[in-house]
Amino acid sequence: MVRSQDTTDEIERAIARISEQMNSNNHRTGLTTAQNAAGIAEMLDLGVPVERVSKELSVKRKAVKLLGAVGRREAARASLEEQGLTIEQAAIVAKFFLMWTSHGEPQPGSDQLVVGWCHARADREDRRNRVLGGPGRVRW
To answer: CA of 104: how far to CAs of 6, 21, 53, in Å?
Structure first.
């Protein structure tokens, strides 16, 4: 599809292109959550405010923040597609990966370590919940 450009500003054209592509594809076939996260992260990286992204894509602001955090980290996007995590869980992966890399310790393939750590943590919480009879219960 070819359209005329309303602006000469390169950033505004990129924002319009990403927004239109995401809206068209979501309407036609539906993008995956990881694809939506990548698109939202790209818009946020261009300096678009959360409120504008929310309005242009018809997504709640809280979801824009979560998807933007997930979209910026390959490990988090991969966890959505490959591990079947929810967007909230993938946001935790993104946050942990950011902490991991900010300490100067990233290794090749460290994304898998992060995903493995999150699964191990979830397994520990599941075992604890089974033993204690439910989430948040304390056994004395």
So the answer is: 44, 36, 32
